[in-house]
Design goal:
mainly alpha
Length: about 60
């Protein structure tokens, strides 16, 4: 089973590359039991979404 440090690393990697089936399973088990890591994952996704929106807005205003 993953510890929180490994889980947060994997949650970060999940945004940049597809996880293997084993990684998804291990991460799913950990986040189902760990509300802190579950919250971290949600926050990472939200930050990614906000960054993309900001970058798009910046590119559109430069035209």
């Amino acid at each position: 089973m993953l510890n929180c440090k490994q889980a947060t690393q994997m949650l970060s990697e999940k945004l940049d590359r597809p996880l293997s089936t084993k990684e998804k399973l291990n991460l799913g088990v950990h986040t189902s039991m760990c509300s802190s890591c579950r919250q971290f994952g949600k926050q990472m996704q939200e930050l990614r979404f906000i960054s993309k929106r900001y970058t798009k807005g910046e590119n559109e205003s430069n035209k």
